[in-house]
Design a protein that fits this description.
three-stranded antiparallel sheet; 10 strands; alpha+beta
């Protein structure tokens, strides 16, 4: 479970890790994109990346960690980078140096 700030309601919401699509660095916070909505939590992206690596989460860009189990498509871009399309249709950028490693992990 992941505890995130429910900004609208002013409380703390518990999210199952399986519902998380991706994590995005956002200043001193991490924006959590899940099937249940978008939330902020006070944390470092590198800390979550390290803790969740064994659960299918991978850094694809300096500002993004994705849940590979929720990825549906890799779209190459002209400049050698790519975009990872998530289950909800969101597009997450993949850094040029991460494209090869990500393709290997996905078996593509």
């Amino acid at each position: 479970m992941l505890a995130v700030d429910a900004l609208r309601g002013g409380g703390t919401r518990l999210l199952p890790r399986s519902s998380v699509l991706y994590l995005q660095a956002h200043g001193d916070y991490v924006r959590v994109a899940s099937t249940e909505g978008r939330y902020l939590m006070r944390a470092r992206l590198s800390e979550l990346e390290e803790r969740w690596a064994g659960h299918g989460f991978v850094r694809v860009h300096r500002g993004f960690v994705v849940n590979l189990r929720r990825a549906v498509e890799v779209r190459p871009q002209l400049n050698g980078t790519a975009v990872l399309v998530m289950a909800d249709g969101a597009e997450v950028p993949i850094a040029r140096r991460q494209v090869g490693e990500l393709r290997r992990k996905l078996g593509v």
